[in-house]
Amino acid sequence: MRILDAQLADLNxxxxxxxxxxxxxxxxxxxxxxxxxxxxxxxxxxxLCYLADRAQLDFDVLFVDTGVLHRETLATRDExxxxxxxxxxxxxxxxxxxxxxxxxxxxxxxxxxxxxxxxDLRKSxxxxxxxxxxxxxxxxxxxxxxxxxxxxxxxxxxxxxNAFRIHPFANVSSEDLENMAARVPDLVVNPxxxxxxxxxxxxPCTTPVRPDEPDRAGRWRHLAGVEYCGINPIDRGAAGSxxxxxxxxxxxxxxx
Length: 256
Ligand code: SF4
Known about the structure:
By secondary structure, the chain is an alpha/beta fold. 33% of the residues lie in helices and 13% in strands.
């Protein structure tokens, strides 16, 4: 059955104020191993992994290594994999190294067009390599982040991946997230946050931010107007439809 965004309305009102863990349990029961957490190892993502792991929800965790990540981010991935034994951390990479790409195409990230291509090659394409393996991807996007994410809902569609996108933290404020993280002494937290990085990405395109700046001010600071890499469809304003297996129809309450 083919479904459009509008057909998620009932599902989204059902989970509009659900606790993140309740939503995680629900999607694990519905999708099982055909659902994965997608994280870049920022605090919200590792908090999501913590909740899933401690509830013994054995999700795959997909991490896209662009080849130009800070060593702290790679160390965070390794620590998460070591300490969250119910989860299976899988690293996705581009076909070419960053050096090969630069030798063949130049330093892409310095221009807006180049950045779009670089993010496509190093972020979106590695995710595309698992298309068909998963029917749902869980992310840590929150409405409180504002911008393109101001309307994020618990369930959304990803037409490019023909999958659901699930956002257990859609309703969680920054304050709630900080409180949640503070209550968990063994939460794995990327050390870059303590170095002034409010959000974390590739080192050529990410800087710390001043206290008076918006959280995403440190992303693509050298390129006016660029805020997102595009790996999340909501950031691209992408809309469309996906093909859904019949077995999901009843648990998700989808009607034609
Ligand atoms: S964030 Fe920068 S370095 Fe990373 S993939 Fe995008 S353009 Fe390339």
